[in-house]
């Protein structure tokens, strides 16, 4: 039985964190570094347990994928933030307008308070602890609502985090939809949601009641565009490596490929060959991850069957005699009609639709006619094509001649655009996302604003003319004294 939080206790848990946040000054750079070091130690010391917990949740999860895609990625984020946060925390000087001189302007980054995190199941460590790195680096407290589909990982993270952070600093609140809805209704200082676009809409709606600012990390269909000049075999190897990582259950997984029509059959074969090389026998292969639940598995079967019935050519890795478990055969689908579910919904599985296109311009039109994706992948050596595609599309991020790796770049912001999300985090972007950039102005001994006070007369008019380049229209607009009315509208330089 999955442990679940009583939704009625959530306001109390939040109030306790808010009280703890308010009762002490913002943590120093040294304190924040020590929190991050604790997280690093947690990951290093418990690698085996974490791999086992994720394995138990998936039924079968590649050990290397958990180590590389979850543990190593969070460790890299911890190290980067730990080394950089003193620099990020430094107040930033900003210029002062001439009229306000002499004075100082600067921005100080303040922690927001308590940040709520709602996570999906596909990377249950990365998408809970990854945000936590940025949230702690920015000096906040945090409550995490992980996915109900990963109970083993949730239980372990709750225990391990509980050993290093008091519950009024970092807490885990497992539960399903009921808990998620109650969680969204809490007056957090910020809410980070990672999940589907449909749920993201509900989250934003719910958070609006308390004017809680949200960051939405959503999904969508991330396209691959293959240009004429690039090797089909190389592109297929690269796309296959991204597509079959975590069995396609990645938000930035290459969702479908747009390939020059005459090369599409060759590309389709090559992607399948890549899968066969990576997983000579996919069923029972410990390097090949399973689909998270039988519901998700059945959905993938339905998507492929519908495309096949609609006339698409389906190529699947050799089937074993009997299949058990939830590993889904690596599948490539050539030319599915755009009306079928495979081309309408985010695939989120090891199935790659391949669509023939006549030119890069046609590929751009195809992408442009659809919701803005989280990622876009382009294979070309041509500078001109690169420019054409970068200028002709909008997406959360881009990888050129590769897939998925843009997410692991600690110094790049990560986030979607439009239906694939709003707001970005990771590294400096995450520090700023979970901080309040407080604007501070310190006046000098001469205060122009105080000199230009009513009753407005000659000095005000002169100052206005000097600053704006035009004369006041009438004394009424300036609110000047009656004695001066009727003497306005004098053109600049008239010698008044
Ligand atoms: P999901 O939207 O079904 O669930 C995500 C989380 O939301 C879970 O914790 C769930 O309990 C919670 N939830 C469910 N109903 C809710 C509600 N009404 N209000 C608030 N929270 C609710 O997503 P999923 O199936 O767990 O994950 C797959 C989706 O997540 C895919 O679309 C994928 O692209 C996306 N994703 C995005 C990113 C990213 O960083 N952009 C990363 C991973 C996954």
Account of the 3D structure:
It is a single chain. This protein has 3 domains: 7-218 and 428-439, Aldehyde Dehydrogenase, Chain A, domain 1 (3-Layer(aba) Sandwich); 223-409, Aldehyde Dehydrogenase, Chain A, domain 2; 452-488, no CATH class. The longest helix is centred in the N-terminal third of the chain and has 27 residues, at 63-89. Residues 478-496 have low confidence and may be disordered. The protein is built from 18 helices and 16 strands. A 7-stranded mixed beta sheet has the order 10-11-12-9-8-13-14, sandwiched between helices. With 496 residues, it is an alpha/beta fold. Bound molecules: nicotinamide-adenine-dinucleotide. Nicotinamide-adenine-dinucleotide (NAD) binds at residues 118-122, 127, 145, 147-148, 176-177, 180-181, 184, 194-196, 199, 202-203, 217-219, 251, 346, 348, 374, 416, 421. Nicotinamide-adenine-dinucleotide binds at residues 118-122, 127, 145, 147-148, 176-177, 180-181, 184, 194-196, 199, 202-203, 217-219, 251, 346, 348, 374, 416, 421.
Structural features:
Aldehyde Dehydrogenase, Chain A, domain 1, alpha/beta, 18 helices, Aldehyde Dehydrogenase, Chain A, domain 2, seven-stranded mixed sheet, 496 residues, disordered C terminus, six-stranded mixed sheet, binds nicotinamide-adenine-dinucleotide
What's the helix and strand layout?
Elements: H1 10-23, H2 29-45, H3 47-58, H4 63-89, E1 92-94, E2 103-111, E3 114-118, H5 126-137, E4 141-145, H6 151-164, E5 170-172, H7 177-184, E6 190-194, H8 197-208, E7 214-217, E8 222-226, H9 232-243, E9 254-260, H10 264-278, H11 294-309, E10 313-316, E11 331-334, H12 341-344, E12 351-357, H13 360-368, E13 375-379, H14 383-392, E14 397-400, E15 421-422, H15 427-433, E16 435-443, H16 448-451, H17 458-468, H18 475-478
Parallel strand pairs: 3-4, 3-6, 4-5, 6-7, 8-9, 8-13, 9-12, 11-12, 13-14
Antiparallel strand pairs: 1-2, 2-16, 7-15, 10-11
Helix pairs in contact: 2-4, 2-5, 3-4, 3-6, 4-5, 4-15, 5-15, 9-10, 13-14
Bound molecules: nicotinamide-adenine-dinucleotide.
Nicotinamide-adenine-dinucleotide binds next to helix 7 and helix 8.
């Amino acid at each position: 039985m999955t442990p679940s939080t009583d939704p009625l206790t959530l306001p109390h848990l939040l109030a306790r964190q808010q009280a703890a946040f308010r009762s002490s000054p913002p943590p120093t750079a040294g304190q924040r570094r020590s929190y991050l070091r604790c997280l690093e130690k947690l990951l290093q010391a418990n690698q085996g347990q974490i791999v086992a917990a994720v394995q138990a949740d998936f039924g079968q999860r590649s050990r290397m994928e958990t180590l590389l895609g979850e543990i190593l990625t969070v460790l890299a984020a911890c190290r980067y933030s730990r080394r950089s946060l003193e620099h990020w925390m430094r107040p930033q000087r900003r210029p002062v307008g001439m009229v306000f001189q002499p004075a100082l302007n600067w921005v100080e980054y303040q922690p927001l308070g308590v940040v709520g995190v709602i996570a999906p199941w596909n990377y249950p460590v990365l998408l809970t602890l990854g945000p936590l790195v940025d949230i702690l680096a920015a000096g906040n407290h945090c409550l995490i609502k992980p996915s109900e589909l990963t109970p083993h990982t949730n239980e372990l993270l709750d225990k391990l985090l509980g050993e290093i952070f008091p519950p009024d600093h970092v807490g885990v609140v497992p539960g399903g939809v009921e808990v998620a809805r109650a969680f969204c209704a809490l007056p957090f200082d910020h809410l980070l949601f990672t999940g589907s676009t449909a749920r993201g809409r509900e989250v934003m709606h719910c958070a609006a009641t308390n004017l809680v600012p949200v960051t939405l990390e959503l999904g969508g269909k991330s396209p691959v565009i293959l240009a004429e000049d690039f090797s089909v075999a190389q592109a297929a190897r690269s796309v296959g490596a991204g597509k079959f990582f975590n069995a396609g259950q990645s938000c930035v997984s290459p969702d479908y490929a747009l390939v020059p029509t005459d090369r599409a059959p060759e590309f389709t074969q090559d992607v399948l060959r890549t899968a066969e090389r990576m997983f000579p026998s996919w069923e029972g292969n410990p390097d090949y991850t399973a689909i998270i639940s039988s519901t998700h598995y059945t959905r993938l079967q339905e998507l492929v069957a519908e495309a096949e019935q609609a006339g698409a050519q389906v190529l699947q890795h050799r089937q074993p005699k009997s299949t058990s478990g939830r590993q889904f055969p690596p599948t490539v689908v050539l030319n599915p009609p755009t009306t079928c579910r495979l081309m309408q919904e985010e695939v989120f599985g090891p199935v790659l639709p391949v669509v023939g296109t006549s030119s890069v311009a046609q590929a751009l039109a195809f992408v442009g006619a659809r919701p803005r994706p989280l990622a876009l992948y382009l294979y070309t050596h041509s500078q001109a094509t690169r420019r054409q595609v970068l200028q002709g599309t909008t997406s959360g991020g881009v990888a050129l001649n590769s897939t998925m790796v843009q997410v692991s770049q600690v110094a790049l912001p990560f986030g979607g655009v439009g239906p694939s999300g709003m707001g970005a985090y990771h590294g400096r972007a995450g520090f700023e996302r979970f901080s309040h950039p407080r604007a501070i102005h310190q006046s000098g001994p001469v205060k122009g604003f105080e000199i230009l006070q009513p009753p407005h007369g000659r000095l005000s008019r002169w100052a206005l003319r000097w600053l704006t380049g035009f004369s006041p229209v009438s004394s009424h607009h300036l609110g000047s004294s009656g004695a001066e009315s009727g003497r306005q509208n004098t053109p600049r330089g008239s010698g008044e």
